[in-house]
Structure formats: structure tokens, C-alpha cells
Write a structure and sequence with these properties.
The protein is α+β, with helices and mostly antiparallel strands. It has helices at residues 3-10, 21-36, 57-60, 96-99, 101-107, 110-118, and strands spanning 12-15, 66-70, 89-94, 124-132, 142-145, 159-164, 175-177, 188-192, 198-202, 214-216, 223-227, 232-234, 245-252. It has one domain: Jelly Rolls, CATH 2.60.120.620. The chain is 18% helix and 24% strand. The strands form three sheets. A seven-stranded antiparallel sheet has the order 1-11-6-13-4-3-2. A four-stranded antiparallel sheet has the order 5-12-7-10, with no helix packed on it. A hairpin with a 5-residue loop joins β8 (188-192) and β9 (198-202). One of its GO terms (molecular function) is iron ion binding. This is Phytanoyl-CoA hydroxylase. Keywords: Iron, Metal-binding.
Length: 274
């Protein structure tokens, strides 16, 4: 298998058994511990619909923090949670890989550094991380998108590492990807608006094609590598089983990272490599 040529051809790689079951379980346990200690002063809901993405201050200042975001369907009309907080969190983001020692060790390994270099990053920087719960029954659909829309560089260098910490199936909301779809080019950018908040800026008015998308049903321990321009999505979790995953996004430090990108980091915690 030539990973670089396969990646260039289809825009993604599926690498089974990339991490051990023990490493997956350790990350799950740590995430659950973090949620147990979360005392919400702000209830920020992460919209899984790309058209209605949350842009509140809690979200916008999360680039160099560990923040917790609720599922859209987590609350009753009166504002109370439908179920326990531990089963209501959509994700944790966006600097686990820098601020939590266990996530730091998981994210910075020789195997991942070698893979990033193999796929063409000259000076890889670990920019963003997310722990995604995909809760049973309420884990929302994530509509088709390109990661480079949110983590834009000039030239485009965004690279996604998505780790299945549990088996991902059609029933519990596995990823879907479009082979070769990264050759469409970037359709839009998610930027900070001058008047505050965020806005999508259209780069190419041609709709993002979803034709030929294939499901990526993968086993626990699998690494899915995603090109920043690749259209991908995930289904809703209609099952009684969660679909925990850990997602890590890299950019090349040789590229330009525009100031109007939504994700900003303090000069005290700049993105760093492996």
C-alpha cells in the first residue's frame, strides 16, 4: 500500500488498528472524567448543521481552551436537560492536545509525525482537537462539509486525523466520504465577521457535490485520514450505542493562516508540532 498515492487519489485513508484498544479506552476514560468535572456556567450548543453553526463567545474563544458543547437535542423546552449531563455533551474542543497530558501524548507520536510527513506536511502544526461523543439516540447528523472551510490556509494544507475510539457503524453514525471529492476545490470559508460573530464567505458558488459518497464503517482503533478539501459527513446516531471519536487537525507551518479564520489562539499558546 502506497499511502501517499492512495491519499492523493481518493482524498482519504482508512488505517485499521492504528492505535490499540487500550489507548482508545484510556482516552474515553479521560474524556468522561473531564465531563464529570464540568460545571457549566455557559450552555453552548454545537450546531451540527453547517448552515447554523454556533458562533457564541464561548465557542469563538475555545481555540486555545478545553470547552464543552451540548447536543442540540439535549434540552427540554423549559431548558432542563433531557438526560444526565454525561449523555448530553456533543463534543469537547479545541485544545485538548495541548492542555491535557494524556491527549498530548496520544496526539504526538512518531507514527503520526511520520504519517504527516509522508502526506506532504513540511512543518506540521497541531492546530485543533475535538473529542466527539455521538451520543446514543440524540447524536446529531453532521452535514457534508470540507474541513479547510474552517481551518483555511494559503495554500490549503489542512489535514484531519479521525480516530475511532469505538466501532463506527451505519446505525451509530459512521463517517461518509466522497472518493476523489477533494479535487472539487474549496467552496467557502467560515470566517469572523467584522461586525462580530461569524459568516460563511463563498469562494465557489457551485454546490458541494455529495455524489458517490461511501460509508466508512470502521472498527475501534482505526485512523481515518481526511484531506482538508474532501467532502465528508456523518449520520445521526439512531442506536443505543455511542460512537466516540477523537479528531485532530493539522496545518503546515509554512503556509499562511489568515487572521479572519474563526479559530484563534493566544500568543501564549501558539500551535506547535510533534
Amino acid at each position: 500500500m502506497n499511502r501517499a498515492s492512495d491519499f492523493e487519489h481518493q482524498g482519504f485513508l482508512v488505517l485499521p488498528r492504528f492505535v490499540t484498544a487500550g489507548a482508545c479506552d484510556a482516552l474515553k476514560q479521560r474524556a468522561e472524567t473531564l465531563v464529570d468535572g464540568f460545571q457549566p456556567e455557559t450552555r453552548s450548543i454545537f450546531s451540527t448543521d453547517e448552515q447554523r453553526r454556533t458562533s457564541d463567545a464561548y465557542f469563538l474563544s475555545s481555540g486555545d481552551q478545553i470547552r464543552f458543547f451540548f447536543e442540540e437535542d439535549a434540552f427540554l423546552p423549559d431548558g432542563s436537560l433531557r438526560q444526565a449531563q454525561a449523555q448530553s455533551i456533543n463534543k469537547i474542543g479545541h485544545a485538548l492536545h495541548d492542555l491535557d497530558p494524556l491527549f498530548d501524548r496520544f496526539s504526538r507520536t512518531p507514527a503520526l509525525a511520520g504519517l504527516a510527513a509522508e502526506l506532504g506536511l513540511q512543518r506540521p502544526l497541531l492546530l485543533q482537537s475535538m473529542y466527539i461523543f455521538k451520543q446514543p439516540h440524540i447524536g446529531g447528523e453532521v452535514t457534508s462539509h470540507q474541513d479547510a472551510a474552517f481551518l483555511y490556509t494559503e495554500p490549503s494544507t489542512c489535514l484531519g486525523f479521525w480516530f475511532a475510539l469505538e466501532d463506527a457503524t451505519l446505525e451509530n453514525g459512521c463517517l461518509w466520504a466522497q472518493p476523489g471529492g477533494h479535487r472539487q476545490g474549496l467552496k467557502r470559508r467560515f470566517v469572523r465577521a467584522p461586525e462580530g460573530g461569524t459568516v460563511f464567505r463563498t469562494l465557489d458558488a457551485t454546490p458541494l457535490s455529495e455524489e458517490g459518497m461511501v460509508p466508512l464503517e470502521v472498527e475501534k482503533g482505526t485512523l481515518v485520514v481526511l484531506h482538508g478539501l474532501l467532502p465528508h459527513r456523518s449520520g445521526a446516531n439512531t442506536s443505543s450505542r455511542s460512537r466516540h471519536a477523537y479528531s485532530l487537525h493539522l496545518i503546515d507551518g509554512t503556509a499562511t493562516y489568515p487572521e479572519d479564520n474563526w479559530l484563534r489562539r493566544s500568543p501564549a499558546l501558539p500551535p506547535r508540532g510533534f
